[in-house]
Amino acid sequence: MPNHTDKLDFPASFTWGVATSAFQIEGAAAEDGKGPSIWDTFSHTPGKVIDGSNGDVACDHYHRYAEDVELIASLNVNAYRFSVSWSRVQPDGHGAWNEKGFDFYSRLLDKLREKNITAHLTLYHWDLPQGLQDMGGWLNRDTAHHFAAYAAEVARRFGARVATIATHNEPWCSANLGYGNGQFAPGVADPVAALQVSHHLLLSHGLAMQAMRAVKAPAKLGIVLNQWTATPATDSAADKAAADLEYARSVQWFMDPIFKGRYPELALKAIDTTRLSIFENDFKDIQQPLDFLGVNYYFRAFVSTETPPRLPEAKLGLTDMGWEIYPQGMSELLQALHREYQLPPVYITENGMAEADQLAGGRVDDARRIDYVRSHLQAIATAMEQGVDVRGYFYWSLLDNFEWNSGYAKRFGLVYVDYATQQRTLKDSALWYRSFIARQRAGQYHHAGKAVGAVGASGAGE
């Protein structure tokens, strides 16, 4: 493994974690009463997934969760972020609950507790029950109320067993990729529909926050948003205006309703709102206090109005997704949010990179991923020095998994998965992350006047 040195020093209370989502790893697509989700339907539709695969088996986490929790514990992390499959616990998205589905998550939580790993639960990671899609999906306002009922039930059962509950993961993707360009499930290509869906997603968030607080869930409650800075390609007025609009239509479109009770004027001026249905008190429902904000950061928007558009220099290269590696954008984003909004505590709930990883001699050499993580942690540290209250970092993802419409062709994991055998192998990045966390804890214990020694589930060091 490469000998990387690290001088970063995070607070002793900082949360170190890994993240996954239900559809991407669980498999067991029709077992124990689970109903189909829109991603089951979408991935079984010819031509929708690049490699022709589906999520029927994925990483078989439903049957291998105990093994996977052992893997998590071996990394020295103290937190695990996962999502609940709505259609596993409520097959149609309304009506009867599925106790076998809830039992699975209860067993998972038991195993995490055995290993002293704190659970962070996400209610919705894009896998709407097909039964609700058949009734109009997120274009149907009633779906927001069904979501609130689902949120209340999960919070009632598990709210005392998890540290946080996030309503949605990346509603921008659900709206714009699911309804705007048809790239994701349910495969609708209608930009106006995407706007309406984004509003119903935000409404469902606010209703769910109220419903969970009504059942007095002890967990901290919030939402996870994918966000980015928007950099104009040149100093031209056109590029600057386009970058401002991009930021308004992406980051501010979701942040402003939650924190300011309105949509950003700049974005509203650029869209056709005549087909957008907003009820009188919707913003009162949406603007609920957050206990935390989850931020997912992968890249910046580089905005050019030229034809063809000017591209960034990508000095640090591109990931296997074709995304520019731009770690300073993490710091720039966090500082911009800190200036513009009264933020609650922030978690970096996703950050990571896809690589064309190969297993050779029992090892995966992914030095670029190590550099990626370290540079983004440095950007987080810089933002914290500027006053941003960041409480934790979750690498995306624990495992190589079903990467949505890319199928199994893109590998984000710290752990390499051989999909034919389901064999898991720690990549070099996993070994580095384990050692990095151990060194952090050892240094903090030293600063606190305690003995320095091997720390964590494996006691791993370099």
TrEMBL record:
One MF annotation (Gene Ontology) recorded for this entry: beta-glucosidase activity
Catalytic activity, reaction form: Hydrolysis of terminal, non-reducing beta-D-glucosyl residues with release of beta-D-glucose
Keywords: Carbohydrate metabolism, Cellulose degradation, Glycosidase, Hydrolase, Polysaccharide degradation
EC number(s) per entry: 3.2.1.21
Residues binding substrate, per UniProt: 24, 125, 169, 298, 396, 403-404
Positions annotated as active site in the UniProt record: 170 (proton donor), 350 (nucleophile)
Family annotation (Gene3D superfamilies): Glycosidases
Pfam families hit by this protein: Glyco_hydro_1
Lineage: superkingdom: Bacteria
Any single biological process term in GO: cellulose catabolic process
Family listed: Belongs to the glycosyl hydrolase 1 family.
UniProt name for this protein: Beta-glucosidase
Natural source organism: Rugamonas rubra
